[in-house]
Amino acid sequence: SCTQRHARLPDDGEWTCAEMAGAVLCLGGEPPAGVVPAPADPAWQCGARRGPRSPRDRDGARVCVDLAPDFPDGNMTGWRCRALNELPGARVCERDAGATATLSATLSATLSATCDRAHPCVDGALCVGQRCVPARPAPSCWLDVDCAGGVCRFGTCVMETRP
Prior knowledge:
This protein is mostly beta strands. It contains 1 helix and 11 strands. The longest helix is centred in the middle third of the chain and has 8 residues, at 97-104.
């Protein structure tokens, strides 16, 4: 396993983050107290959260997604990572060769995985040029309930298609 002690975040604000098939999704954006704001990290794409708010949400809650986060060897395939949301915020990645091999027969488990008709992409990604890529990001959701009539995939509301 590998621990990134100070994981990259969208900015210096307060964030709650989660991993999703190789992408990192964060909710929050409350400015830090007593600190001069630093510029946002350009690797993140952000938008205002829509949908119902929980009492814990602050006004102006944002959703941000990093579709190419750091991995120990630079390749998201073969790693299972998770965000540790306690301060100072860390990210832990563990080798997951067994799970990746099991899933590869039926489903490409991460973004950037190879894909074809026999190896479809993880839900919310498209097979383009034999690689799994997310639909065009428009971050605005954290949960499916944020998307009226749709589902939240990689922070973007998409309409569910029925076969």
